[in-house]
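Quick question, first post here. What does this chain look like in 3D?
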Amino acid sequence: VCLTGCSQDLMVQTDQLCHRRGIKFFTGDVFGYHGYCFADLGQHDFVEEKPKVAKPSPSVEDGPDAKKAKLDSSETTMVKKRVEFCRLGDALAVDWRGPKAAAALKRTAPDYFLLQ
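> Answer (accepted):
Ran it through. Tokens below.
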């Protein structure tokens, strides 16, 4: 489901409905030079390809080579991962008071507050 140009209440209600039924949800809008996009993909499973780490040879006991793990670009491992996306209502209900919020505020794009 994709929404644009809707009220915040309608977006939150639609996201809750989609999240309960396992339907992917996208919303966004543009205001002049600024805009936002939000995606609630529920539980998203994917596979990531990682290069294998070659262990140092046992003959080298000390020195810089013994402490460094080397990446072998010819061999890779497939790693399954799962990401749990948050709901729009949860993203908008952040409490900006307190010590943790001050640190998060520095990492938050100013465009986040357009939606507020």
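Strands lie at 2-4, 25-31, 34-40, 43-54, 70-84.
The chain is about 30% helix and 40% strand.
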